[in-house]
Write a structure and sequence with these properties.
mainly alpha
Length: 77
Amino acid sequence: MYAHIERLLKSERPDITALERAFSFLELLMSHSDAKVRDVADQSVCENIACDEVVLQKAQRYVGEATKKACAEYIGK
């Protein structure tokens, strides 16, 4: 999922609808009641977003609260 988001964000002409869908799905995963689901999304997507300055900056427009919180935890480390 991260590779898809990265490709969209780094595209010269990003598909806004696809970005909104991807981040909406990520937010659903990050808000899931099962901690294992949240952990997988956190470690496989949020960690990568937080570690790539360009992606992180461009993602700010699309991230929801749970995703933003998870990314902030990686930045704070």
